[in-house]
Amino acid sequence: MPDNIPNQNHKEKNRDYWIKQSEMLQNAIVRMANNSLEVKKVGLTVWAAIVGFGFTNQNANLFVLAFVAFVLFGILDVYYLYLERRFRDNFNRLSRIINGYETSKDNEWIEKSQGNFLKMDASTIFLAELPHILQSWANLPYLIVFVMKIALVIAPLPLK
Question: How far apart are CA 23 and CA 46, in angstroms?
């Protein structure tokens, strides 16, 4: 068999491999979404506990600590959302290829990544994607907590 296999034969030969890759991508996407949810749950719980403790002890420094925890958990959550979107991009690319709708960019990517769809596209930088990621509805809990935090900072602590 010659080395230059026609494109259609090459597709049929790799179809099972690509379907397995799509299943692995789906699992990775689900893991990133679950990690994001867990980070939100733990982050909001930690934030509420620190704020509650701050009110109990009437210590303004605890509100600063709550804000730091809020920011750190928020960054971790945004990173998981970023990874989820990157995996979704790879899944969409793979779906186009499996169904015969690939573009020249898809073919270039296959050559560059050597067919490993779990490999992230290195052309996208996390900080460049940050404004787009922050516009996601998945970040609504953080927006609500941020507004609550501003309200807590503005409102004076009650006196004993």
Answer: 34
Give long-range contacts, CB 8 A cutoff, 24+ apart: 107-115. Answer: 115/14, 115/17, 115/18, 115/21
Please say whether the beta carbons of 33 and 59 come within 8 A.
no
Q: Note the pTM of the prediction, 2 decimals.
A: 0.71
Q: Give Cα 113 to chain centroid, integer Å.
A: 21
d(CA 145, CA 56): 19
Between 124 and 34, whose confidence is greater?
34
What is the average per-residue pLDDT within 10-37? 86
Residue of 105, 107, 85 whose CA lies nearest to 14:
107
The closest alpha carbon to 77, from 103, 47, 102, 53, belongs to 47
What CA–CA distance (Å, rounded) separates 131 from 126? 10
